[in-house]
Amino acid sequence: MNWYILVPVCLSAGALIGFTGGLLGIGGGLIAIPLLGLLLGMDQALAQGTALIMVLPAILLSVRHYNRRSKIDKRAALSGALSTVAFTWLGARLALAMDAGLLRMIYAVFVVGMSLYYFYQSYVLRHRLSVPRLDASVKATVYTRYRYLALGALAGTFGGVFGVGGSVLIVPVLVARMGYSQTQAQALALSMVIPGTVVALGTYSWHGQADWLVGIPLALGSIALVPYGVRLAFACSESRLRLAFACMLLLMVPLLLLSV
């Protein structure tokens, strides 16, 4: 595809992905990776590395706008971020050594599992009048720093292996086990994976698994609409937000399987 066609297409696709990523707190990589594989014929590792070019600025902007609306627990974010770095590097090295087809199939299974979990969470919320929340003081005393370190390690490993998805994995834990609302969990999870995303992008790029001609216009398009996605996230009910998340994840599976 010629660059003068590719760039406008990537700008438009990036804008749509950025809006969705801001809404769902995912950075947009879960959407970009299967599309890059299906439409541009990228193998899984190259698609993951290219998506990271878009994901990093989208995450930074999303965190900024989430924090404006609901202050992020900086101590928790820092604790999780510290452990993401080393584990992201290990996960990325593992992914680069794996067969591309196998990596894509594992990624598809991961996406299906996450979508089923969010369908369940949406169902639970729709049939419950209220969801108990823990206030900040309780969180500070009960959920000590090592728990956030463990979450950061988990997010880093999966983020390194799949290029993205680490924040998606720990959001359910923050919501179901640690008393955060959906938007609070999305904001905290994204802030935890920022340094790991930098490490992952550097690792994929160092091994030649990132297409900057595609990634940069995707990033520019993405950051244009991220704020509007975040705004809509705070306007939606939690059950609807989780249902939208689940549907989006499930829609990605056919794209992943088609691009195997």
Automatic annotation (TrEMBL):
Record-annotated membrane-spanning stretches: 6-33, 45-64, 76-95, 102-120, 148-175, 212-234, 241-259
Membrane topology reported for the UniProt record: Multi-pass membrane protein
UniProt keyword annotations, A-Z: Cell membrane, Membrane, Transmembrane, Transmembrane helix
Domain of life: Bacteria
Compartmental location: Cell membrane; Membrane
One Pfam assignment: TauE
Keyword hit for Membrane: yes
Entry keyword Cell membrane: yes
Family membership noted in the UniProt record: Belongs to the 4-toluene sulfonate uptake permease (TSUP) (TC 2.A.102) family.
Protein name (record): Probable membrane transporter protein
Organism whose genome encodes this protein: Alcaligenes endophyticus
